[in-house]
Amino acid sequence: KCKYAFSALLLCFSISTITECAHTVPEYLSDDEITPKEVEFHSVDYKNVLHWKLLKPLQGRPVYFVQYKIYGQKKWANAVHCLGITEPHCDLSQETSDRRECYYARVQTALDDTLSPWVISPRFVPQWETSLSAPVIKLTARESAILVQFKAPRSPYRRRNGSWISMKRLHQLTYRLYVMKDNMIQAKHVLGRPVRKILIVNLKPKTTYCVQAEAKIQLHNRTSKRSKKACVITL
């Protein structure tokens, strides 16, 4: 029964991007139990993933259907890779790739031949709501100095040749460095302009130093978490 009911649901969604499949809830389920909760986007480096959850685990195996639209549009579009999925999340990075646009998404639960109401996410604007992951740093020992090289986070977008687009191509990124010795911060360096590397000088020779970095999107005044600690012994 479940197999054929599920096939019918997929057919319902494939007929039209705006088809409204019937919403029915049997007596043994409450409307609240099957309805998705906390439907919202989580975004890091423009990887825009819609998340939701159910009030409690259900008997059987619920599946989910996801649709999205741009603010102002009347019709909803199917997220074709998220029709009949079993995990409570859907990556909509490509569907929401215009960083300045306003988007909505909605989710519906199906269990056997039962459908929940649609639940709509809050309005989502990628450029204002994405967070920035920590940069990667590489240290090279120099005489009484350390060369620090930065690698910016990667976005989910690709160039025509298939290579990934870095976040530094989408935003002006600056960095803040923390230089530590014996687990104590010795110096902070705030880099007010985009750079790929910096030489930290006037350090003690043959001494272990550790460095962490934060990246910042200047336009939005948004700062990443600190990078993993990297350590090196000066020459």
Automatic annotation (TrEMBL):
Residues 34-118 form the Fibronectin type-III domain. It comes from the Eukaryota. The keyword Signal applies. Coiled coil: none annotated. Pfam families: Interfer-bind, Tissue_fac. It comes from Lepisosteus oculatus (Spotted gar). Keywords: Disulfide bond, Receptor, Signal. The keyword Ribosomal protein does not apply. Residues 1-21 form the signal peptide. InterPro entries: FN3_dom (IPR003961), FN3_sf (IPR036116), Ig-like_fold (IPR013783), Interferon/interleukin_rcp_dom (IPR015373), Type-II_Cytokine-TF_Rcpt (IPR050650). Residues 130-234 form the Interferon/interleukin receptor domain. PANTHER family: INTERFERON/INTERLEUKIN RECEPTOR (PTHR20859), INTERLEUKIN-22 RECEPTOR SUBUNIT ALPHA-1 (PTHR20859:SF53). This is Interleukin 22 receptor subunit alpha 2. Belongs to the type II cytokine receptor family.
